Fold this protein.
Amino acid sequence: MRFQLVRPVVSKGSFIPRFVKRIPSDIKDRMVGRTLVIPLGKGTVAFRVTASTQSIRFSLGTADPSQARIRQAEAVTYVEQYFSAVRPAARHGRERDAGTPVELRIGSLANACGFRSWAR
């Protein structure tokens, strides 16, 4: 997973930052009807995904910028892990468990490492 810039969103007319994360289109249908219980500081935030939900949005509950960044990072970590658990991992037309290792053949491994040209 790539590192993401952790930056809370501040709306006009407000000084309390908000968490905003778009729901990826490949898992949107699987997310409808689910309730995410997202850790926020010492508590949690429950967020229900409906058919019209485009992104996950909620208040970070603090005006302190350093505390807001910490809460944003915790929320992004949780949401990204949730998305990766929901996302289907297609292998031969079947879904695989997120904890299952991927099988690689030596040719695929050589191509990925760039060794294919001198291995012939």
The beta strands are 18-22, 35-40, 43-48, 55-59, 90-91, 94-95. The chain is about 30% helix and 20% strand.
